[in-house]
Design brief:
26% strand; Heat Shock Protein 90; ATP-binding; 5-stranded antiparallel β-sheet; alpha+beta
């Protein structure tokens, strides 16, 4: 099992690039497919952007990101000290009930991102929000849990 950690300031304007680079490096090390990497990066970017803009209200705050590569999955934790917010309770139904031409912009990132990772969970632990994103590792035959070939 390999583990990686990153701590960033939520007010840092380069945060999305830093998060993307971190997730892409993890995904590459784990052997995720291009599609898996894209969706995991999108989900991590959406969570961290929401923390910075809504949780910390643009005033800055610490965002910790950790990644762990296990034999069958890549797990990414995103933690912050903003007020509690459980993304799994977000209900997009009212926004989706409006005809597309009348919908307001924004508010769809969580819906899109969290449906594309293999597992997503949230917990509030020790006064911190913890978002957990999981992608299953795919083997040569495309099935989760199979060994992935790696370049030496």
């Amino acid at each position: 099992m390999l583990a990686y950690r990153l701590r960033i300031d939520g007010s840092n304007t380069s945060m999305p690039g830093v998060v993307a680079d971190f997730v892409e490096a993890l995904a590459g090390e784990a052997g995720l497919t291009t599609h898996q990497t894209y969706w995991l990066r999108l989900a991590a970017d959406e969570i961290t952007t929401n923390i910075a803009h809504h949780g910390y209200r643009g005033c800055g705050g610490v965002v910790d990101i950790a990644g762990e590569i296990e034999p069958d999955r890549l797990r990414v934790w995103i933690e912050d000290d903003a007020p509690p917010f459980d993304p799994t309770l977000y209900d997009p139904a009212p926004r989706l009930a409006v005809p597309p031409c009348q919908r307001e912009e924004g508010g769809y990132g969580l819906l899109l991102a969290l449906k594309k990772v293999d597992e997503f969970s949230y917990e509030f632990v020790g006064g911190r929000n913890r978002n957990i994103l999981v992608m299953q590792l795919l083997g040569r035959d495309g099935e989760a849990g199979a060994e992935c070939p790696r370049d030496s």
